[in-house]
């Protein structure tokens, strides 16, 4: 927790031959394959010791694909967009488009929202299968589940589209924690870091880490006894910086001086 994380991008910024394992992947949609692997793992679990499963769905993400039955739930032409979606705006004339440069057109955004909603619904259905497998195994009540994402995304809000900016739709990600000691259906509105998950799990599991960390457990907030941070620091690559408090946000663009 206190050591720098090594990644395959450290040296060149790209994936090099031999850095990733390749294999003959099974046929099917990756959302279904990922969920099925998790379900099989749980079914084969021997109940003789604690287990850990990291289930990394690719959805919602490019390629924006799922099965037709999920698209049909969200007709594109019926999707309402924010009023900030303006067709035919030149992307290269406004600084904010340089940081989230997806095409900002009504028809495109309706399709993107449809695709996103369809992929999320597909994933949600398969997460239900994983939860069912935990219940069938008799371990659901004693299992900690953390659901989150690495970022959000803009679908025309604030006149931008995409994820590479510090506006609210981009920096706000879901974070759901289910644990035996967490009150069901409780909600926390405090700003947190995703890196807080690690110390939170240590607390929930009643374990101690020998490594220092700059982040904090959320268990005091989960028990309603904690105090939220006064502010959260934001950054995007080397060209966007921000800080957000309970009711204010400041974003600066060092390269452009704005």
From TrEMBL:
GO cellular component terms attached to this protein's record: cytoplasm
Annotated ranges, domain Sulfatase N-terminal: 21-205
EC top class, as a word: hydrolase
Membrane-traversing stretches: none
Keywords assigned: Hydrolase, Metal-binding
Pfam families: Sulfatase
InterPro entries xrefs: Alkaline_phosphatase_core_sf, Sulfatase_N
UniProt xrefs under SUPFAM superfamilies: Alkaline phosphatase-like (SSF53649)
The EC number(s) this enzyme carries: 3.1.6.6
Highest taxon listed in the record's lineage: Bacteria
UniProt keyword annotation of Metal-binding present: yes
A molecular-function term among this protein's GO annotations: choline-sulfatase activity
Protein's name according to its UniProt entry: Choline-sulfatase
Provenance organism: Algibacter lectus
Species lineage: Bacteria, Pseudomonadati, Bacteroidota, Flavobacteriia, Flavobacteriales
């Amino acid at each position: 927790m206190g050591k720098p994380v090594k990644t395959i991008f450290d040296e060149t910024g790209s994936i090099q031959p031999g850095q990733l394992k390749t294999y003959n992947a099974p046929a099917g949609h990756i959302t279904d394959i990922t969920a099925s692997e998790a379900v099989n793992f749980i079914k084969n679990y021997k109940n003789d010791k604690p287990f850990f499963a990291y289930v990394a769905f690719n959805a919602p993400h490019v390629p924006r694909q799922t099965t037709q039955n999920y698209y049909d739930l969200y007709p594109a032409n019926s999707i309402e967009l924010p009023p900030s979606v303006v067709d035919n705006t030149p992307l290269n004339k406004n600084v904010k488009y340089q940081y989230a440069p997806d095409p900002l057109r009504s028809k495109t955004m309706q399709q993107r929202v449809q695709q996103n909603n369809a992929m999320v619904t597909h994933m949600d259905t398969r997460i239900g299968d994983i939860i069912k497998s935990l219940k069938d195994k008799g371990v659901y009540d004693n299992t900690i589940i953390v659901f989150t994402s690495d970022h959000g995304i803009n679908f025309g809000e604030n006149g931008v589209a995409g994820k590479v900016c510090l506006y609210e739709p981009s920096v706000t990600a879901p974070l759901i924690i289910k644990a035996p000691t967490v009150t069901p259906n409780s909600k926390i509105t405090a700003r947190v870091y995703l890196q807080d998950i690690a110390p939170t799990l240590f607390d929930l599991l009643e374990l101690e880490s020998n490594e220092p960390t700059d982040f904090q457990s959320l268990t005091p907030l989960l028990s309603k006894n904690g105090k939220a941070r006064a502010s959260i620091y934001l950054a995007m690559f080397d060209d966007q910086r921000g800080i957000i408090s309970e009711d204010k946000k400041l974003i600066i663009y060092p390269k452009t001086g704005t």
